[in-house]
Amino acid sequence: MRKHKELQVWQDAMLLVEHIYRLTSSFPDQEKYGLTSQMRRAAVSVPSNIAEGVARSSLPDYLRFLAIARGSLSELDTQIDIAFRLSYAPSDTELAELVQRVFAKLNALIRALDQKRKDSL
């Protein structure tokens, strides 16, 4: 098994991708190339960048890709809010908790790796 698949944050991010694909499947057709596409790309970017970071040979590269994943997650969080404001999706406590869980685990991993980087200097 690839190392990234062992990470709980990657596993949760994959669940988030599934949730976003299901959610956006009911969006209006005119959003196919708009919000639907943006949300799906942002969601896919989170586990993809975690996986790419794990595969990198240096700790600074790993941290950079985790930061990109966190940025994509922030982007997705905003897009979820937009979808709710436009009434494309109902309020979803499960989704909100999943986003928060991925944020927390991603931040914890970044902090731990950053501390490891500082300790090695």
Shape: elongated
**Total number of beta strands:** 0
End-to-end C-alpha gap: 31 Å
| Fraction in helix | over 70%
The low-confidence runs, each spanning 5 or more residues with pLDDT under 50, are: none
Q: What oligomerization state is this entry in? A: single chain
Task: Walk me through the structure.
By secondary structure, this protein is an all-alpha fold. Helices cover 76% and strands 0% of the residues. The protein has 4 helices and no strands. The chain has helices at 8-24, 35-55, 59-85, 93-119. Helix 1 runs antiparallel to helix 4. The model has no long low-confidence stretch (mean pLDDT 96).
How are the SSEs ordered, and which strands pair?
Layout: H1 8-24, H2 35-55, H3 59-85, H4 93-119
Helix pairs in contact: 1-2, 1-4, 2-3, 3-4
How would you concisely characterize the structure shown here?
With 121 residues, this protein is mainly alpha-helical. The protein has 4 helices and no strands.
Annotation keywords:
single chain; 121 residues; mainly alpha; 4 helices
